[in-house]
Write a structure and sequence with these properties.
This protein has 742 residues and is mainly α. The chain has 6 domains: 24-192, Rossmann fold (3-Layer(aba) Sandwich); 197-268; 270-371, Orthogonal Bundle (Arc Repressor Mutant, subunit A); 381-453; 476-666, Alpha Horseshoe (Serine Threonine Protein Phosphatase 5, Tetratricopeptide repeat), CATH 1.25.40.10; 684-738, Arc Repressor Mutant, subunit A (Orthogonal Bundle), CATH 1.10.10. It contains 40 helices and 7 strands. It has a 5-stranded parallel β-sheet. Strands 6-7 form a two-stranded antiparallel sheet. β3 (133-137), α7 (145-157) and β4 form a beta-alpha-beta unit. The longest helix is centred in the middle third of the chain and has 17 residues, at 377-393.
Length: 742
């Protein structure tokens, strides 16, 4: 990650430093320091000094307890980014947390926050000797349900001495009843944060250099209702005022009035060049001097920022090196309103300039946000189309969904490249109807060139979508996968690997012995993300198991599982394929209970994501039903076969082989004559040999696979032929299929 991208991360972990304008909140700090509650909830409307109060608490206790600080923004409304910043902040505050490799370990868990990362974090925090406080500032920006649930999980499971301080404008939508009942919450609200008269007088004195009389202090306190931001704005306006008493009499605490008054008494007094700088840079969530110069096309931004900081014009330093800054949120909102009034036609151009700067410096997410704000749809669509795949691979799918939602359904449907990105995100999220609608948009487009994400064409995208997810049935899936394999031929492309893996899997489901070749090509591919490689390895493992090469299949499945574990994908539905293959291998080795555990785990993973491709789930249902029949769990097997029947009834086209497998299992379950096992029952060892006979292995290779001698295999083979009443290997496999033994 380049130096620029590191800067915003570091700035987010830097609490505001003390300033001379800060009124000491001694009583409030004492209240915070005295609490032993697990959760310190500081909630009040904007401008009540929540962040400053917690920062003063931190400063007062810094020698006794460390504070891990995260200043949240809208981008943190994504589980992967949120917990990446939290873990960084905790490691920074407590260098000994979990050992030197702890951050690297946690990063691998970002794809499974609740299942792996948070339990590891809870355990590491519980082992600390010092009582660390994790501060999440501007927590109202976290609205994504999974993020809220994960914060709630951490709160409920956190052990002493650690505690959490949530600083938010609104009461968070968390299930806090249990913590309240246990007395584990210390709440700081508007009543606690309102300035006393002495604090109002102190702030006016420091900011304005004016000592108001008792009557004026009481009047100003009443008009502002102790709202710290209102007092501060009033004090700024009092600077140099010839009649402070008259000013106080005319002042009101109404937010809109304060904003208007701020413009008349503070902003409008700024020189023209400073005012232009303020309003034009107000579109930026955070800024640095080079970015400001690019956006405003005005030189000397560093000097201007220094002046603004000296004048206390609502500017906040975001890092210790004072390179990155932001405006006070209310101040920035007022500046943006003023910009819209003064130079409305310039607003899109400012966003375009910001987007170009961020794109040049590697800040792709910021470039997309500004392109969207500028209404520059072609630029935004091209950036999204180039970034959706790496973002999804990194577990940031919610960020991509937010970008696509910002485009709007009408724009997505009218732009084939936008429809392409949206269709893939919808497919991965399990939204088949959306995928079908958008694929029609993609196919109707005349755009034939390579796509920003590396796909050969929109035609290839549509083929891959239909082939990889199979929402339109197995015949369409197989034909589309074959088309994608013809279009995606570059072995350095992840889409080539996906096309080959998809083709192999669709052929496997069709009972086609040619499945092995495309999956072998997929595994030999030179480039892919972890998710694609995991799918390719699993498809190859299934083909190997079908050929009777159980050792090779197991090795491939283990490799897929390692990739999933190393990249935090072990809970991803696609990674369940590794468990499916492991279950198939265990079953064919006669290890029925182990097979059952593997397949049930894989099925749970698939069912957690409704709407995904039905075919991997169907494979698990059929394999697990066979295991349960052998374990005499007839009720369990019947339920699975009924579910499989529903799937095939809804998507019957091209599924003849799967129907045959289902029918064979139903006969075995019912005990019908067509499914009866011969009276002279095959032994478990003979069944293991029989399963390998259906592949391409020689008898010597079968012996090697099972760890037996060639003579023993020949003995078992003769017994199998005799019991099944057939003369040769081909007849044994055919008869075994009729009897439901395979």
């Amino acid at each position: 990650m380049d130096e620029y991208l590191n800067a915003p991360v570091a700035s987010k972990l830097h609490p505001p430093g003390p300033r001379k304008e800060w009124v000491p909140r001694r009583q409030l700090v004492s209240q915070l320091a005295a609490t032993e509650a697990k959760l310190v909830l500081v909630h009040a409307p904007a401008g009540f000094g929540k962040t400053i109060a917690v920062a003063q608490w931190r400063a007062a206790e810094l020698q006794g307890r460390p504070f891990a600080w995260v200043s949240l923004d809208r981008g943190d409304d994504d589980p992967a980014r949120l917990w990446w910043h939290v873990t960084h902040a905790l490691q920074r505050a407590c260098p000994g947390l979990g050992g030197g490799e702890f951050l690297g370990t946690l990063r691998a868990m970002l794809h499974d926050v609740t299942g792996r990362l948070l339990p590891a974090l809870v355990n590491a925090l519980a082992a600390l000797s010092e009582p660390v406080v994790l501060v999440l500032d501007d927590c109202q920006l976290i609205t994504e349900p999974r993020c809220r649930e994960q914060i709630e999980f951490l709160l409920l499971n956190l052990l002493a001495p650690a505690r959490i301080a949530l600083v938010t404008r609104t009461v968070p939508q968390l299930q806090l009843a249990r913590l309240r009942a246990a007395g584990e919450i210390a709440e700081i609200g508007m009543g606690d944060l309102r300035f006393t008269r002495d604090e109002v007088a102190g702030l006016v004195d420091v900011v304005a250099g004016v000592r108001l009389g008792d009557h004026e202090i009481a009047d100003l306190s009443g008009r502002t209702e102790g709202w710290p931001a209102g007092v501060y704005l009033a004090a700024l306006s009092l600077r140099g005022h010839t009649d402070p008493a008259a000013f106080v009499r005319q002042f009101t605490g109404d937010n809109r009035y304060i904003s208007d008054f701020l413009f008349e008494e503070v902003i409008s007094r700024q020189p023209g060049d400073i005012l232009r700088f303020l309003t034009r840079t107000a579109i930026l969530e955070r800024f640095t001097a080079p970015l400001c110069e690019a956006v405003t096309e005005m030189a000397g931004a560093a000097g201007t920022i220094d002046m603004l900081e000296r004048e206390n014009l609502f500017i906040v330093a975001l890092d210790e090196n004072r390179q990155w800054f932001r405006y006070h949120h209310l101040f920035a909102q007022v500046l943006r309103s003023q910009l819209a009034l003064r130079e409305p036609a310039l607003v899109p151009e400012l966003h375009r300039r910001a987007s170009a700067w961020h794109r040049l410096c590697g800040g792709v997410a910021e470039a997309i946000e500004h392109s969207l704000a500028a209404g520059d749809v072609p630029e935004a669509v091209e950036l999204i189309a180039g970034q959706w795949y790496p973002y999804v691979n990194a577990g940031r799918m919610e960020t991509v969904r937010r970008w696509i939602n910002a485009l709007g359904d009408e724009m997505v449907s009218a732009n084939p490249l936008a429809a392409h990105s949206a269709a893939w995100v919808a497919a991965l999220a399990g939204e088949p109807e959306t995928v079908r609608r958008l694929v029609r948009v993609i196919e109707a487009a005349g755009y034939t060139g390579p796509l920003p994400d590396g796909m050969r064409s929109l035609k290839s995208s549509a083929a891959l979508l239909r082939g990889a997810f199979g929402f339109d049935g197995l015949r369409v899936m197989r034909e589309s996968a074959a088309m994608a394999a013809e279009l995606e031929t570059d072995p350095r492309s992840p889409w080539c690997m996906l096309a080959q893996a998809t083709l192999g899997f669709s052929l496997y489901l069709s009972g086609d012995p040619g499945a092995a070749e495309p999956v072998r090509r997929a595994v030999r591919g030179e480039a892919s993300g972890p998710l694609t490689r995991c799918v390719a390895l699993c498809a190859a493992a299934m083909a190997s198991a079908e050929d009777g090469r159980l050792g090779h299949a197991e090795a491939l499945a283990n490799a897929a599982r390692r990739i999933a574990d190393d990249n935090g994908l072990d809970k991803a539905p696609q990674a369940s394929l590794a468990g499916t293959v492991a279950g198939i291998v265990r079953y064919r080795q006669g290890r029925l209970e182990e097979a059952r555990c593997e397949l049930e785990r894989a099925l749970r993973a698939r069912r957690a994501w409704l709407g995904l491709s039905p075919w991997p789930t169907l494979e698990i249902l059929l394999q697990l039903a066979a295991v349960l029949i052998d374990l005499d769990d007839r009720a369990g097997a019947a339920g699975l076969l009924a579910e499989a029947t529903d799937v095939l009834t809804g998507l019957p086209d091209g599924a003849d082989h799967l129907w045959a497998r289902l029918t064979s299992l139903q006969r075995r379950l019912s005990g019908a004559p067509g499914g009866a096992v011969p009276a002279d029952e095959l032994t478990q060892r003979e069944r293991m040999v029989l399963r390998l006979l259906r592949g391409t292995l020689t008898l010597g290779e079968v012996a090697q696979e099972l760890g037996m001698s060639s003579n023993t295999i020949k003995t078992h083979t003769r017994a199998i032929y005799r019991k099944l009443g057939v003369p040769d290997r081909h007849g044994a496999v055919a008869r075994a299929r009729d009897l439901g033994l395979l």
